[in-house]
Amino acid sequence: MKKTKIILDLFLTMLKIGLFTFGGGYAMIALLENEFVSKKKWLEKEEFLDIIAIAESTPGPIAINSSTYIGYKLAGVLGSAFATVAVCIPSFVIIYTISLFFDKFLTLTYVEYAFRGIQACVVYLIISAGIKMGKGLKKNAFNIIVFSATIVCMLLFSIFAVKFSAVFYILISGTLGLLVYLIGKLTKKEETK
Predict the structure, then answer these.
(1) pLDDT digit string (tens) for 4-37?
(2) Is the pTM here over 0.90, yes or no?
(3) Domain ranges of the chain
(4) How distant, in Å, are the alpha carbons of 90, 94, 102, 107, 186 from that of 97?
(5) CA–CA distance from 177 to each of 74, 80, 145 (Å)?
(6) Going along the chain, which residue ranges are E strands?
(7) What is the 8-class DSSP label of residue 137?
């Protein structure tokens, strides 16, 4: 009975988040954190950051991946299925409806104004999510160096118009993190001998 209630609440929450999130998965991170960490307290901050890191590192859209992981964490396979479907339904319905009369839709002045307003909100949501995640990171030398190096590379590559996919930043950072972790494990093994 309790699991059914959690799945229903999870479904409705993901449906709401999917309905009111504009700008994709990165904009959704702030809403997910607010609902599951701050309001419902179903996840710890550290646990949420781990879920987002895994969702970003695996193939597929971050919104769907993070919803799937959160659903699995809270209610197993059934929870992940319901969370994934719930976060996708609003986008599917909206896009399908818009596609029926897309050309006429774009010529409406109010739609143009709405999209401009939504763009500003998306920028805010992405920056807000980045700041919240940054505050939650452990402040050690490795994290600060990787974060700083990534920001510097992103800025320099943008200024000099060098094409470098965001996927590579993630892969390089993940590989460095894995190497540091493995070196730490090997060091501990050597110390215990």
Answers:
(1) 999 999 999 999 998 887 777 777 888 899 999 9
(2) no
(3) 2-137, 138-193
(4) 11, 5, 8, 16, 56
(5) 27, 27, 11
(6) none
(7) S
